[in-house]
């Protein structure tokens, strides 16, 4: 099941809108079908107890939040060349990819950690954001990290530059190392996130599935994107695979290789990749 956790009392999806009727208070959840798709989404909402205070807060926040979202989505479409959008005002959203791994957007408040711990059995969080990403959205990261400590959730960071395929390629081995270690510990699920959960976080998860789950790149990519529509950069994953599997000085430059190079690896290459990635633990 695809899962989204949302904040407001109304939710817009392309060609679909959900509104809560009346004046509900506290937590609520419901199941909805999404038009033109056969997925069902579980929507979890936190509704303000005071209608007037909610409206005042919406007025104060909506303009600046909308401007940030428009700026971010414009950059994402230009740099990543994909049609996906991030709606920060809808709150944290995520998707269960495997039994052990969840991919999603950034937690926005300490209460999001309570939700992940209590509802999804998350024991590890792998954050791929840079400091400037967090600051852009006005999120108090320290309060989130503090709540992780209080709840016994391990918070890890492997920052990568947003919309930058070369930066993503360079951090993939260490990020996958952290993810693989957390999964191997077996104490709970791993929540992998960037800002929107549409680029860096799914790329790390696809690389993990490719390198450690005996899947080729296309199978791993299709398995993830069939559950969470997004646009992880295949070329960055192929480049990182090349970097790990081929370390001879005479090797042909990656840029000279055909487009399908390193979409799969041999058994000995996969073993080499696994050994190298595991050696990065703690670095």
Automatic annotation (TrEMBL):
* Ranges for domain Tyrosine-protein phosphatase: 93-250
GO MF terms listed in the record are: carbohydrate phosphatase activity; phosphoprotein phosphatase activity; starch binding
Q: Which UniProt keywords apply?
A: Carbohydrate metabolism, Hydrolase, Protein phosphatase
Question: Does the keyword 4Fe-4S belong to this entry?
Answer: no
Entry annotated with the keyword Protein biosynthesis: no
Gene Ontology CC terms: chloroplast
Q: Where is the Tyrosine specific protein phosphatases domain?
A: 169-229
Q: What processes does the entry annotate via GO biological process terms?
A: starch catabolic process
The protein depicted here goes by the name Phosphoglucan phosphatase LSF2, chloroplastic
**Can you name the source organism?**
Linum tenue
